[in-house]
Automatic annotation (TrEMBL):
It comes from Comamonas odontotermitis. Residues 59-136 form the Thioesterase domain. Keywords: Hydrolase. Gene3D superfamilies: Hotdog Thioesterase (3.10.129.10). It comes from the Bacteria. CDD domains: PaaI_thioesterase (cd03443). InterPro entries: HotDog_dom_sf, PAAI_dom, Thioestr_dom. Belongs to the thioesterase PaaI family. This is Uncharacterized protein (TIGR00369 family).
Length: 148
């Protein structure tokens, strides 16, 4: 998908673009941690986080909580834009299995829906290092709430 065109295919119910996501991230934890949105596909969203002084834990590895922030960011955005226009979503549960430590470079996450229901959504976020090796697998469950 072209980075400048809005996503209005497959699962997406609301228009959005990488530029709009980037603008919304200003002055938030997303910007502070250096998280970047990279791609919007027909049924997925890709973003990445740098592994550097902002995101390390004391032993020089990517902090596990930062992996969870990346997962929650991508899963929440996916749920929001795949829900009807008059609905919003809030997180109910998130879990993460940390598979491999990362000391430098980038961790890239791909969020895909496991379930898009009327009252809940479940998204899986697979994260890989620069070599494409799995570093973390996370699932987020979102509650769907109708506005009004």
């Amino acid at each position: 998908m072209n980075a400048e065109s809005p996503a209005m295919t497959a699962i997406w119910k609301k228009p959005f673009s990488l530029d709009a996501l980037r603008a919304a991230a200003r002055n938030t934890a997303i910007e502070h941690l250096g998280i970047e949105y990279l791609e919007i596909g027909d049924d997925y969203l890709v973003g990445r986080v740098p592994v550097d002084h902002r995101t390390h834990q004391p032993y020089g590895l990517l902090h596990g909580g930062v992996s969870v922030v990346l997962a929650e960011t991508l899963g929440s955005v996916g749920a929001m834009f795949s829900s009807p226009p008059d609905w919003r979503c809030v997180g109910l549960d998130i879990n993460a299995n940390h598979i491999r430590g990362v000391k430098s470079g980038w961790v890239t996450g791909t969020a895909r829906p496991v379930h898009i229901g009327r009252t809940t959504q479940v998204w899986q976020i697979d994260m890989v290092n620069d070599e494409g090796k799995l570093t973390c697998v996370s699932r987020i469950t979102m509650a769907m709430l109708q506005e009004g």
